[in-house]
Amino acid sequence: MRRFLVVIEKCENNYSAYSPDLLGCIATGKTREETEKNMHEAIQFHLEGLREDSLPIPKQTSFAEYVAV
User: Whose CA is closest to 9, among 28, 25, 23?
Assistant: First the structure.
């Protein structure tokens, strides 16, 4: 099992998500929960495509950290 950082952003009318380690892999949804589900499916689809094309699966290089100021 692999783990990838997913960034979820609140937009004006919905949510959007992306993974910095999986270029082009994005998802949207009306709620945060729907967006998380859609992103999970998008990552699975993205990885299946990489495997079918015999391309390497990127390693996780991104991380997140909260900074208190």
Answer: 28
Single out the residue of 67, 63, 7 nearest to residue 35, CA to CA.
7
Please check whether residue 35 is in contact with residue 28, taking contact to mean a CB–CB distance below 8 angstroms. yes
Q: Collapsing DSSP states into helix, strand and coil, what is residue 7?
A: strand
Maximum Cα interatomic distance, the chain, rounded to a whole number of Å: 46
Which residues are CB-neighbours of 46 under 8 A, at least 6 positions away?
22, 24, 25
**DSSP secondary structure code for residue 50 in this structure:** H
Tens-place pLDDT, residues 9-36: 999 999 999 999 999 999 999 999 999 9
Phi/psi at 15 (5° precision) = -120, 155
Read off the pTM.
0.89
Number of structural domains the chain divides into:
1
Domain range for 9: 1-69
